[in-house]
Amino acid sequence: MRPRIDEALVRRLVDTQFPQWAGLPLKLLDPAGSDHVIYRLGEELSVRLPRHAGAIGQARKEYRWLPRLAPHVPLAVPVPVGVGDPDFGYPWPWAVSRWLDGEVATVDALGDSSGAAVELAQFLTALQRFAPEDIPAVGDDFTGRPLSDRDRATRLAIAEVDGVFDTSAMTELWNAALSAPGWGHAPVWFHGDFHTGNLLTSDGRLSAVIDFGGLGKGDPACDLMIAFTLMSADSRAAFRDALAVDDATWMRGRGWALATGLNAYTSYAAVNPRVAAQTTRQITQALIG
Question: Is the model's pLDDT at 142 over the cut of 80?
Answer without folding.
Answer: no
